[in-house]
Design brief:
This protein is of the alpha/beta class and about 270 residues long. It has ten helices and nine strands. The longest helix has 23 residues. The chain is globular and about 65 Å long.
Length: about 270
């Protein structure tokens, strides 16, 4: 991950750092490949309980690398278009790897977050930002349709009305607007405060019973996609499968003994 990302660890919290500031952390094919591999590793690592995404440099991400994206133009043939569809599906899957990761994912954003960056954020569980953050669903302004998940996920986060305005105009919207819409849950004064706040929240979540946290994420996603009835049936199955757990017994025992619980994910 030396080219596009750097991975750091603080206890049970993993930090995935966008690490190509000289290119404004723009997104290439390699970016998406590394993103998917990173989240497969986080998902498989029992020591990782929460993931925070942040970026180096003054810009979170400028979105799709337009220089690299010139290869998308192709020759217009049927074979090219069939290949392009497969390429888009593969990149979509890389963003979906963030959502599929059983560990909660927090995005900590500063500076500009454009186009594909909003797709990435929409796949995260929690989004927070510094006051200097600026967002844009920019695709209509360069003649394409946002195709990596924003149009599918964002309406569930901020509603169809706001999504429609932002996606159709491609305009910039500020961190304060994003907070009012519900896209962000927390707004911090600056980058330093943002990273401290994100780290604290990640550590708080990482200190809870891992199976309960991961199951909650899965149930939220399943309920969003399938509706209330199937969602209720799914959570009944999940709880029936894991109650009682060692962590549940530890939580009750620690409460009775008036001590801090030590959860092990069992």
């Amino acid at each position: 991950m030396e080219e596009n990302f750097r991975s750091e660890r603080d206890g049970n919290v993993a930090w995935l750092v966008l690490n190509r500031p000289e290119k404004r952390n723009s997104m290439t094919d390699e970016f998406f490949t590394e993103l998917a591999e990173s989240f497969r590793c986080f998902d498989a690592d029992p020591e990782v309980r929460t993931v925070v995404i942040r970026a180096e440099g003054p810009v979170f991400t400028a979105g799709l690398d337009l220089v690299a994206a010139q290869s998308l133009i192709g020759d217009g043939s049927a074979a090219y278009r069939a290949g392009l569809q497969k390429r888009i599906l593969a990149v979509q899957d890389s963003i979906s790897a963030v959502e599929r990761c059983r560990k909660p994912v927090i995005a900590a954003v500063h500076g500009r977050c454009i186009g594909g960056g909003v797709d990435l954020l929409s796949a995260c569980d929690i989004r927070m930002a510094a006051r200097d953050a600026v967002f844009s669903i920019r695709e209509t302004r360069i003649g394409i349709i946002a195709d990596l998940g924003t149009l599918q996920r964002l309406p569930h986060i901020i509603g169809h009305g706001w999504t429609g305005e932002l996606a159709l105009t491609g305009r910039d919207f500020t961190a304060e607007e994003a907070l009012k819409m519900g896209f962000l849950t927390r707004l911090c004064e600056n980058r330093e405060a943002l990273l401290k706040e994100a780290g604290g929240l990640a550590a708080e979540i990482a200190g809870l019973p891992p199976l309960a946290v991961q199951g909650t994420k899965e149930v939220l996603t399943q309920g969003r996609d399938q509706g209330v009835g199937p969602g209720l049936a799914y959570v009944a199955q999940k709880n029936a499968a894991q109650i009682p757990s060692e962590d549940m017994v530890e939580a009750v025992t620690a409460f009775l003994e008036k001590r801090k619980p030590a959860f092990k994910g069992r």
